[in-house]
Structures are given as structure tokens and as C-alpha cells.
């Protein structure tokens, strides 16, 4: 730890930045990671290594922009493109809102799936209830306390997954090898980009940029590094636990795998944790879309445009829930969509963090940092582009 950073301030920074981990550990993470383990064993564990490191690299860059300039990522993007900035900002906002809306569909469906395992209530009524509570809290702005409480439940669920992972037949050698040796086949590409998209969440870059204000570089780097690493380890534990799931994948199968290794009580813990992950993220995604609109286009937090953004994102999630869509397929597609959108946001971040007019030299990317960001873009484009190509081929048949 840097000398300028005390243990107390370092621990406080980790807790402060844990909101990033809480934001990406939602139903999408549980579903995508567990399905990857169920279908491909440990073969795709390397994708979580890549995405965890990529998240740290990108989140650190986004937060460093704000520390260096006092401006959010959206404000830097808007100022970087001069007269054409309004169109650029609008296009970027559209891609972020699209990603948030896609996430929201998975968030609502995941939260409803979790509650359905506990309460004998129609999914339609559960969807309507969750939607109304989220809208009320977002309108009032009183989401922090509830989100923090549910975040603790998600963390406890993560500990349960970690415990189960240690009780599988996976050896330390197999685990370490899978962490660093890339293995991918054509039929695993959707899950690979899904694992990347569910960890390196595009809208979290704007969230990190806003959170970075007022912190020192040392506090920010320590906080992001450890908080994201913990989130990545939880995701890896979920994937390893998924290797215990046999047959057709479902949330009930995951709950049964937990119960067989930990005890029957873990079924309810998983169900409530799945609900908590979905509900917490259902509050985060619409707000992140609205905050991004505020950052890029300067809309006031009390304006009708600002509220229309998060209401639109919420509406998409409720629509899928009220249609009683099957949660697992929707969530997998959602993560893949966000993985495809990731390069778009990362390219803007790359340009912003190297902007000589707005970012002092001491805060701009080094050559190594630029290389790391370009690798994230290249890998995301490779797998995302391949998925788009496969989709086009299937459509043309």
C-alpha cells in the first residue's frame, strides 16, 4: 500500500468503491457464471480473469479523469469533440441507455425469479410490485440504505458460493491453469462475451467517474483494485459452483447444488440473494442511465428529461417481466449485448484519458495503460463481432 495511504483510509476506500462490485454482481453475473460452469466446466474461467483485470484498468482510468480534471467522463467527452459534441454525446448516451435497458430486463426477471422461489405469488404481481417500489424509491431518491442492506445479502450469498466452490472436486492446479489458459470454442463465444459484459459493465465507467471526485489517486486505486478483485473472486466461485449443475440449467438447479453441499437452508439464501441482486441492480441501472444523461447532456437531476430516461429504462424491464419471459435466456442475451457495447464506451474513455487539453500529463495514460485498454477493446471486438456475425448468418438462413 502506498505510504500516503493509511490502513483506515484504505479500508474506507474499499468499502466506498464496493458499490462497483455490487453493481456488477446481479442476476446476470449469477446466471452467466453458473451457466458457464455448468456447460463448459472451468474452460471459461480465464474470461473472468480477463474481465476482472479489465474492470480495474477501465474503472481506474474513468475515476482518474475526474480526479485530474474535476470533470466527469461525460463532461470530458462532451468537451473533447467541439461543435460535434452534442451529436457524439447523444449517440453515446443512446448506447448506454440501451445497455442499461437491457440490463434492467435481466434485473427485474432475476429479482422475480428469486422471490418466486420463496413466495407462492404470481410472477406478474411480483413484477408489478418490484417495479412500483423501484419507481417510488427512484422518484424519492432514497435508494442508498436499502441498496446497501441488500448488497450485504448478496455478499453473504457470495460467501456461500465460495464455500461450495472449495468443496468441489476442482484441484488448486486445475483452478490456476483455467485462470490463465484461454479455451474457447464457437459454441462458447456468447458466454465468453457475456462473462466480459457482466463484469466490465459499460455504465459503471460513468459511475466510477462520478465517485472519483474528492479522492486521492492512492485511495482510489487501492479502493477500486481490492473491491473489484473481491467481486471477481465471487464471480469465479459462482462459476466453479456451476460445475456441479447437471442437466438443463435453471435457478432451481443452482439452488439444489448449493443445498446438496451446504444444507437445505442455502436454497432460501440463494433465492433471497438472487432477489437482492436483481432488486439492487434494478435501482442502479435506471439511475446510472439518468446520471449518464446528466453527465453527457447537462440535464438537471430534477428535469423531466432526466426522469424520463430512468422511467424508460424501468419500463423496458417491467415489459419483459409482465410478458413473463423466461429469465435465463433473456439474461444471457443481455450480457452479450453489453459485451458488444463495451468497445464503444471504451474507445471514448481511451480518447478522454489521453486528451492533452483537459488531462494534465501526470494523469494521462502511460504506454502500458494504453496497451491494456487496447487489449480490452480488441478482445471485446473479437468475441462481440463474432457473435454479431453468427446472428447475421442465422438470420439469413
From TrEMBL:
Primary site of residence: membrane
Membrane topology: Multi-pass membrane protein
One GO CC term on file: plasma membrane
Keyword Transmembrane helix: yes
Pfam families in the cross-refs: Nramp
Signal sequence range: none
Molecular-function annotations in GO: cadmium ion transmembrane transporter activity; manganese ion transmembrane transporter activity; symporter activity
Keyword Transmembrane: yes
GO biological process, one term: iron ion transmembrane transport
Transmembrane segments: 15-37, 44-67, 87-105, 117-139, 145-166, 178-203, 223-249, 269-292, 304-323, 330-351, 371-392
Cell location: Membrane
Keywords on record: Membrane, Symport, Transmembrane, Transmembrane helix, Transport
The protein's name in its UniProt record: Divalent metal cation transporter
Originating species: Larkinella punicea
Lineage: Bacteria, Pseudomonadati, Bacteroidota, Cytophagia, Cytophagales
